[in-house]
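Archive entry. Fields below.
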Amino acid sequence: METVLPVLVGIIFGVGLFLMLQRNIVKLAIGLILLTNGTNLFLFTAGRLTKAIPPLIPINQKTLSGEFANPVSEALILTAIVIGFGLLSFVLALIYSAYSKFRTLNPEEIEVSG
Amino acid sequence: MNDVLIWPIIFLMSAAALGIVFRSKATTQLTLALVGTLAAWMMSSGILFAVITHGTLVLPLGNWAAPFGISFIADKFSAVMLWIANTLGFFCIVFSRYEIDAKKIGLGFYPLMMFLLTGVNGAFLTGDLFNLYVWFEVLLISSFSLLTLGSDKAQIKGALPYVAINIFSSCLFLLGIGAIYGMTGSLNLAEISLRLKELENSGLLVSIAVLFIVAFGIKAAVFPLFFWLPISYHTPPVTVSAIFAGLLTKVAVYALIRFFTLVYVKDALYFQNALLLIAALTMIIGVLGAASQNEFRKILSFHIISQIGYMLMGLAFLTPMALAGTLMFIIHNIIVKSNLFLISGAVFHLTGSFELKDQGGLYRNRPYLSVLFLASAFSLAGLPPLSGFWGKLILAAEGLNIKQYTMVGISLVVGVLTLFSMTKIWLQTFWKPFPKGELPLNKNIVGYLIPITALAALSLSPAIYPEPIINFFLLAGKELMNPASYIQAVVTAGGRK
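PREDICTED_STRUCTURE:
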């Protein structure tokens, strides 16, 4: 998995950036969604991937024993997902607002007259 | 005593939360915002005083000692940035009373401003890399909403690239955090600094540093990543422009300085030439962009970019003196730049336009406002003995000391060009007669003048009594170049039992 995920992150980033560079603000939003998710996957990989138990201390012990999954990167991703969700919902609202005001999805045709 | 570090954030957040509750009551919202920012200002004054007298304050949140929990840390640099942010926040709220109408208040103007300031405060205080990211997002999403508040066409147009590029840069920031966490296993800045010292100088470290430079570079609007700034900063209400101009880019500069003086101590010199080049181009492009504009706020927006170049130049010199100059320049710039934006608001109120060609006649009719503009504009250009002069003097002297003659030359030429654009505003807005008949004289701008006068007085203070102020910044610069004391403070501040 540790070799597959980085490649996947790379592909997601490539596709996301490609979409962001299109002359269409909906594709821009999809590109941003891909980028934030690619970043989350990267965080996940950076915390090391192991086939291990959740980091829960057994009831009659004081410390963790054996291999356990890294809880820090999971906490980071959860936070990043929530933040990304907020940002992206703002982006969608902004795009809707732009479309209803300018009646176009091409950023080059967005002109402010008067 | 260390508990005081959390109070500015508590006050601002409570003001924001209560503001949402009293959404329909405009006066209550204004009162809440005034009380919240004033309380946060008093707390940050206390923090600044305590840091000057007692040294670095550290608060391990939830009693989790570093590196396991998140610590709030105030050294001289953090404390002075915090203080200036809250000072500016308070005066902008005072200004907003006369500018923001009931409709915008109903849309949540004051809670958004409070959240923005919360984010700025948190970013200056935190000692944890991921927490820094979270505070950045708090201030970013508030800035998105403030930028589009009211949804004018111009605002939507300016917001699209602003939002997209900032989310992109946040992604890069998060990638950098992930990579650095993968290498060191820690998110605490002090701990990361210790662990990176033990690592061999690998290529990966350099590429992570590039991620951070690009991420913060976008947010600080340095060359060539600045284009989003001048197309968006002139669209929201003036209060919002002023607080954006004063604080947002400087939070990114703060992060860059923190990063290169604390985390990437070993590699900082590796990037020196790159940073110098970026700084030079940022200064030149910014000031030339400003020279080609004819709209009050667009000229000021381009000058923000130009002056970010000075701050980067000081960081690239990387000596205690140069950092002292940079810090002094940042503080001066926050005050003066925001004040010029506020002045543009007063001018708009009087003349009904932001375009220089439609303004005029203010020197004859509003001499007091004109003097305030002149003081701020000359200070921005760095004329002695105003506040902009001292930061630039220290930077230039230090540049000559370490034989960076080209950079010093460029910075001085850029100073002259800054004076040129300020003269342009002076000639058009203040000196020439009002183009459309008589300037309406019945408008009352006393409410606008109070915060503008206060900020102008603040920016004049180094002119009257420079020595203690300069001494403070010299100490702060020395402290930044000696990260061991910062690390020591964080590591020894265990949780209180």
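CURATOR_NOTE: Chain B has a mean pLDDT of 90.
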